[in-house]
């Protein structure tokens, strides 16, 4: 899988993309992640990528030309399954979407900034608009990293234990059950006896009950979705 990220702040992405599972996946060739500075495609002598909005609203808007040139350059080299724009008014990102994206070959993530991009980019080039929550951030870089991490960890070979991702929260539309490790007793705080029993059938039953109860208590909205 290849992911190309378009941003006006490439330095903001350097560290999170060079650690943990993302770094391991890139090193092993499981995934390729490239960061492109939109300013490199600006024909303005100062490499500006923003301007005042028509209509006199406050705040700056990302201009069409540099984004168009960057996307067209990438599309001239390969076909892309999705061109994703990070926007607070996009569809809410969830595990099902991450699962779908992990099956794709090539995607572009365009990081929003300022008051957003010129609407014509959204109308004619972007294929999906994604939000990571009902709040506004300064830019879409953090949202892009969140998506990249959630996608790459699903790719075969990205994690040392590939079955681990399958038991994560939200994979079956439930929260994960509580987890414990050694020691079995700490300050009189004990691990549930069932987990020490070795009876895997009963353990799985207990875990499912815990997942259901936790989801009903903490995220009842997930039941409403069904």
Structure in a nutshell:
This protein is α/β, with parallel strands linked by helices and 226 residues long.
Low-pLDDT regions: none
DSSP strand tally? 9
Largest sheet: 5 strands, parallel
CATH class category name of the largest domain: Alpha Beta
| Beta content | 15-25%
N-C termini distance: 31 Å
Mean pLDDT: 93
CATH architecture of the largest domain: 3-Layer(aba) Sandwich
Count of separate structural domains: 2
Provide the CATH superfamily of the largest domain: SPOUT methyltransferase, trefoil knot domain
**Structural class by helix and strand composition:** alpha/beta
Spatial strand arrangement across the major sheet: 2-1-6-5-7
Query: How many separate helices?
Result: 8
Anisotropy-based shape: elongated
Per the CATH scheme, the topology name of the largest domain is Alpha/beta knot
Task: Give a description of the structure.
With 226 residues, the chain is α/β, with parallel strands linked by helices. The chain has 2 domains: 151 residues, Alpha/beta knot (3-Layer(aba) Sandwich), CATH 3.40.1280.10; 57 residues, Trp Operon Repressor, Chain A, CATH 1.10.1270.20. It is 32% helix and 19% strand. A 5-stranded parallel sheet has the order 2-1-6-5-7, sandwiched between helices. A two-stranded antiparallel ribbon has the order 3-4. A hairpin with a 2-residue loop joins strand 8 and strand 9. The longest helix is centred in the last third of the chain and has 19 residues. The chain is elongated, with a radius of gyration of 21 Å. The protein starts with a strand and ends with a helix.
């Amino acid at each position: 899988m290849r992911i190309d990220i378009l941003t006006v702040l490439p330095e903001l992405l350097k560290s999170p993309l060079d650690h943990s599972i993302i770094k391991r996946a890139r090193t092993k060739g499981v995934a390729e992640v490239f960061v492109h500075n939109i300013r490199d495609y600006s024909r303005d002598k100062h490499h500006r990528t923003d301007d005042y909005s028509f209509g006199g609203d406050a705040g700056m808007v990302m201009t069409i030309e540099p984004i168009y040139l960057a996307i067209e350059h990438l599309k001239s080299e390969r076909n892309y399954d999705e061109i994703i724009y990070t926007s607070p008014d996009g569809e809410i990102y969830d595990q099902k979407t991450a699962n779908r994206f992990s099956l794709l070959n090539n995607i572009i993530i365009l990081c929003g900034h300022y008051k957003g991009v010129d609407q014509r980019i959204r109308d004619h080039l972007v294929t999906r608009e994604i939000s990571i929550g009902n709040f506004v951030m300064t830019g879409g870089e953090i949202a892009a990293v969140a998506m990249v991490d959630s996608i790459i960890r699903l790719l075969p070979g990205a994690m040392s234990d590939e079955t681990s991702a399958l038991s994560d929260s939200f994979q079956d539309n439930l929260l994960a059950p509580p987890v414990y490790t050694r020691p079995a007793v700490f300050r009189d705080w004990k691990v549930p006896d069932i987990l020490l029993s070795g009876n895997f059938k009963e353990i799985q039953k207990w875990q499912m009950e815990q997942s259901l109860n936790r989801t009903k208590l903490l995220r009842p909205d997930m039941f409403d979705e069904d």
